[in-house]
TrEMBL record:
Residues 1-105 are annotated as: Disordered. One of its GO terms (molecular function) is nucleotide binding. Residues 247-369 form the GFO/IDH/MocA-like oxidoreductase domain. The lineage of its organism: Bacteria, Pseudomonadati, Pseudomonadota, Betaproteobacteria, Burkholderiales. InterPro entries: Gfo/Idh/MocA-like_OxRdtase_N, Gfo/Idh/MocA_domain, GFO_IDH_MocA-like_dom, NAD(P)-bd_dom_sf. Belongs to the Gfo/Idh/MocA family. This is Uncharacterized protein. Residues 41-65 have a biased composition (Low complexity). SUPFAM superfamilies: Glyceraldehyde-3-phosphate dehydrogenase-like, C-terminal domain (SSF55347), NAD(P)-binding Rossmann-fold domains (SSF51735). Keywords: Oxidoreductase. Residues 110-236 form the Gfo/Idh/MocA-like oxidoreductase N-terminal domain.
């Protein structure tokens, strides 16, 4: 693979392979130390992943994520701009509209570190290995044995073997991530640990893709965004649903006004798991609870629907929420209605203690759009207009669904952007503000609030 510099700052390309920071524990999957160890439509490898998203498999993955109890997890501020703001917005607009050229296979590989080798990171790595111009350079965890097991489980023939390192705490993370053979960092630790990993990666000058939620609350997010801007480093919340092919079709229907003026949105994300006070789903010290873990999809896609239908998402006039709290004090089930100007409403329920159809429905004056199953990883959408037969589209994943957000990071970095036009940081802040308000209503507080 080529080693030409990416058009971003802080990504030197001349590092010796396998050279870790001083004092950091480092091994390679083979047992030795040191040495080697667009919503795009690229690549045919990984087409087998298209069949993984069937209903039972998806439900099992959700349950497995929430029962992963390890410490690794399962699952704009002021500052100096790098270029005139108008030019950046123009480039963002062209990227969002798909006017930029596709990523070329002649480009140097984007080299990734994974922080938090758990279940959800496994899905990320599977997508990464199915894409050209992407390379896994480092697996970083609190438990070296776990990192070694993760690397073994996700070894891919013909792919570069990543280094393994052990690190805990922001200082150790920053030292490990400062290695010059890393361009971007994917963070998949439990929610409460996201902040220190994001800060460490940004301080090291790396691009960051962090699992949702970026952090548990708005107050914790603002300093990270200020740091990203000060370092001119890329930062994006990994809300992968927004990059799925089927939502490009839904976007076209909404922007064309096929269903008429928007009337409402309904969605559910529910599954049943046994209560475990030590689980990341139920432990308040890990920012557990259904809202932050899965309800964020309901809220983020509500915002997305309103943006496509109205041009922008208005602030709700009021929000009404009720919840059933687990013995640990986090929400095991939460239902809410958000009321918007013009009589538009959004209703959703998220839960760890029950079942639902897990669909998303968008109501208009003249029609209905449905994503009938597992809307957060949907491959099917249905348009029903008054007096007409339903129109159903099936748009499978290229690999497993995570490829869209990976390709978005690559496109943005090669374009010199510090945030994604499809998942901007303003969206992260707005969704966190809604979740803060809903948690306050139902009485969920974390030890670090």
């Amino acid at each position: 693979m080529g080693r030409r510099s990416l058009p971003t700052r802080g990504h030197p390309r001349q590092a010796r392979r396998g050279q870790g920071p001083e004092g950091a524990a480092e091994v390679h999957p083979g047992g030795g130390s040191g040495g080697q160890g667009q919503q795009g439509q690229q690549g045919q490898a990984g087409r087998q992943g298209c069949t993984e998203g069937r209903s039972q498999g998806r439900q099992a993955r959700c349950q497995a994520r929430c029962q992963d109890d390890s410490s690794e997890g399962g699952g704009k501020s002021s500052g100096q701009a790098r270029r005139p703001q108008g030019r950046r917005q123009s480039r963002c607009a062209r990227l969002s509209a798909g006017a930029e050229p596709p990523v070329s296979e002649a480009q140097p590989a984007l080299r990734w570190a994974v922080v938090g080798p758990g279940n959800i990171a496994g899905r990320f790595v599977q997508a990464l290995q199915g894409l050209p111009d992407q390379e896994l350079s480092l697996i970083l965890g609190r438990d070296l044995a776990r990192a070694r097991s993760f690397a073994s489980a996700h070894r891919a023939a013909g792919r570069h073997e990543p280094r393994l390192q052990q690190a805990a705490g922001e200082a150790q993370l920053r030292a490990a991530l400062s290695s010059p053979d890393i361009d971007a960092v994917y963070i998949a630790t439990p929610h409460a640990q996201h902040g220190e990993a994001v800060a460490a990666a940004l301080q090291a000058g790396k691009a960051v893709l962090c699992e949702k939620p970026l952090v548990p609350g708005l107050a914790q997010a603002r300093p990270l965004l200020a740091l990203a801007q000060a370092r001119q480093a890329f930062l994006m919340e990994a809300l992968w649903t927004r990059f799925l092919p089927v939502y490009a079709q839904v976007q076209q229907w909404l922007q064309a006004g096929l269903i008429g003026p928007l009337r409402g949105v309904q969605s559910s994300f529910c599954f049943s798991i046994p209560f475990d006070a030590q689980s990341r789903c139920f432990d308040p010290a890990l920012a557990g609870g259904a809202l932050l873990d899965i309800g964020i999809y309901n809220l983020s896609m509500t915002r997305w629907v309103l943006q496509q239908a109205l041009g922008a998402c208005p602030e709700p006039l009021r929000m009404e929420a009720q919840a059933v709290l687990a013995p640990t004090g986090v929400d095991q089930r939460l239902a809410a209605t958000l009321h918007f100007p013009g009589g538009i409403s959004s209703q959703f329920v998220c839960a760890f203690d029950g079942m639902a159809d897990n669909g998303l429905r968008i109501f208009g004056e003249r029609g209905l759009i449905e994503l009938p199953q597992q809307f957060w990883e949907a491959t099917e959408a249905r348009l029903t207009l008054a007096g007409q037969a339903p129109q159903t589209v099936h748009l499978p994943f290229q690999i497993n669904g995570f490829e869209g957000e990976i390709l978005e990071v690559s496109r943005c970095l090669r374009a010199g952007l510090t945030e994604s036009p499809q998942m901007p940081l303003s969206e992260t802040l707005a969704t966190l503000a809604w979740m803060d308000a809903l948690r306050t209503q139902v009485g969920v507080r974390y030890p670090f609030d």
